[in-house]
Amino acid sequence: MMSPGFTGSPLDRADRVRNDAEAYGALLADWRARVLGLDGLDPRVSDAGGLHWHSMAELDGSEELILLGLSDDKPHFVAVVEATGDAFRSPAIWRALSMLPAEDAAIYGTARSLIEWHNNHRFCGRCGHATLLFRAGWGRKCGNCAKEHFPRTDPVVIMLAEYEGKALVGRQSRFPPGNYSALAGFLEPGESMEEAVRREIHEEAGVTCGAVRYVTSQPWPFGGSQLMMACIADAQGDALVLDTTEIEDAMWVTKEEARAALEGASDRRFNAPPPFAIAHSLLKYWVSQ
Amino acid sequence: MMSPGFTGSPLDRADRVRNDAEAYGALLADWRARVLGLDGLDPRVSDAGGLHWHSMAELDGSEELILLGLSDDKPHFVAVVEATGDAFRSPAIWRALSMLPAEDAAIYGTARSLIEWHNNHRFCGRCGHATLLFRAGWGRKCGNCAKEHFPRTDPVVIMLAEYEGKALVGRQSRFPPGNYSALAGFLEPGESMEEAVRREIHEEAGVTCGAVRYVTSQPWPFGGSQLMMACIADAQGDALVLDTTEIEDAMWVTKEEARAALEGASDRRFNAPPPFAIAHSLLKYWVSQ
Question: Which NCBIfam families does its entry note (chains A, B) (predicted)?
Answer without folding.
Answer: PRK00241.1
